Amino acid sequence: MDAFAQQVPIDLQLDAVDAIWPHYGVARLGLCGSILRDDYGPDSDIDVLCTLRNTTISLLLV
Known about the structure:
By secondary structure, the chain is an alpha+beta fold. The chain has one domain (about 5-50). The protein contains one helix and two strands, in the order αββ. The chain has one helix at about 15-25; strands at about 25-30, 45-50.
């Protein structure tokens, strides 16, 4: 398992993430915010930064 994935308090399911990157044109994906700090908890959100290869792709935010 990736060393970074072992440091965050959620199951990142890296195999699934790797499988969908090409479909959405993702060049780079990152996490930021409380998920990387000690104050992450059950009520915390997960902040995701995404760099796309092609800016004409639409994203559905759930």
